[in-house]
Amino acid sequence: MLNSILFITFRWLDVVDILLVSIIMYQLYKLVKGTIAIRIFLAILAIYLFWKIVSAFQMQLLSEILGQFIGVGVLALIIVFQQEIRRFLLLLGSNNMFSRRSSKLMKLLNVKPTEKKIANINPIIIATKSLTATKTGALIILDIHSELKFISTSGEKIDAHISSSLLENIFFKNSPMHDGGLIIEDNRIVAARCILPVSESQSFPAHFGLRHRAAAGITETSRAIAIIISEETGKISLAKEGNVHYNISIDELRDKLEEEIN
After folding, report:
1. pLDDT means per 10 residues in the chain (262 residues)?
2. Which of 39, 82, 152, 243 is placed for a possible disulfide with 191 were both Cys, Cβ 3.0 to 4.6 Å?
3. Contact 37, 25 (CB under 8 A)
4. CATH topology of domain 122-261
5. CA 191, 192, 195: angle at the middle one, nearest 5?
């Protein structure tokens, strides 16, 4: 038995297998790094490796107990890591290689992809500039690449054309809809006062408030982008893919938005 453990024959397929597993594990680690889930991830990985060692030494009773735990634990993993799994699948889906192949497939099937465009960003820029000057807190979500219908149903439905005056009135301090996020889709304000998922990253800067954490959360779980205006400082931030670009100027905001919609 000892010889079979120490002298293992490696095929080139085994090397590819190990390489692919390493890449997947690294990508998963990047997704959960800095969150509470990393501790659960490392604990489950340690149990799995221990189970493999026990199985290699043919310790049948302990191996069977750990095997049952691992088998049931798959369902628990899906529940615990549902946000991370969503982000991992989103990462695969947004990969250039997959995007090109999916577009070719859609062409072969004669399916026209739904493109969401925000052609006119001027009202957003004007409203942002005005809200910044008065230090009025705001959180605007631009649903350009993804579907946020479930999120939009959590707020007040508006369904109106984008206008700077409407945006300013919604985020007015005494307005009943100024809390939560406002979602813009297809050149229309879809809903306001929406409840957004909050980022659970432990490395998130402490000086950021709930708006910034919510903006990071919604951009972690979707391909949307978010504009944040701080109520304390009036500074502008832009969130994308869970990262918050803090204290950007109006011109920088315009450039980043034009880059996204073009």
Report:
1. 52 84 78 65 80 84 80 69 64 50 47 54 94 94 78 89 93 88 90 88 80 90 90 93 91 91 74
2. 152
3. no
4. YojJ-like (1 (3.40.1700)
5. 105
